[in-house]
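INFO batch 0412 | record 1 of 1 | parsing
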Amino acid sequence: MEAKQGSAAATAAEALRQRILDGTYAPGQRLPSATAIGNEFGIDRGTAARVLAQLRQTGFIITKPGSGSFVRTFEPILRSFPARLSAWQEGRAIQDADTGKRARMVEVTVGETPASEAVATAFDLAPGDPVLRRSRRFAVEDRPVQLADSHYLLELVRSTAIVYTDTGPGGVYARLDEIGHAPVRFTERLRARMPLPAETAALELPGGTPVIAITRTAFDAEDRCVEVTEMIIDASAYELEYHATI
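INFO prediction complete | emitting tokens
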């Protein structure tokens, strides 16, 4: 009997997932109750509740106490590279190119930190040498979506607003431009993986949600590395778009 319930529960979970993916249940729509799901798929109410819990843990639905379960709503963020990186030239933050007028919040901390091996190599330093780190946690429409740590040579930026949480119009790249080191070339390396526990907590990720780790390196006109940024983004919140000319 238990095996039969387990098989029916798997069938129910897959059917509900498919209905969400194909739009049968639209974003924001209320799902049937556990009782209704149980009746449809021949499982008891407790098993149906566990099916809903599984959908919630994998990020397909949210549950509002007293109201029921609803298909999760969030318009994916289109992250277009390298076009997004020119926003600073118009006095805008790079994130403006991604989210436009959508409600956005960022938590910023700034301070010196020992350079990791990867950061030290990019800057031609010894591992452990001090660099400036700007750490950010971005949320869009109250949903945490990205963690980012940007690193800079202290000798280059210590007299600029880059050392403050608010860098002013155009952000860091505008300040680099003011000291003659505007970024003109970028590279990005991407890797999909499962999040570390601290990343899961910081991004409030449902179980089973992967992240994309992105390392961006920026170079000035003399091909000097002026920034190394390590990002962790919620893979379910973004669409990545890349343009190239050959």
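INFO post-check: The chain is about 30% helix and 30% strand.
INFO record closed
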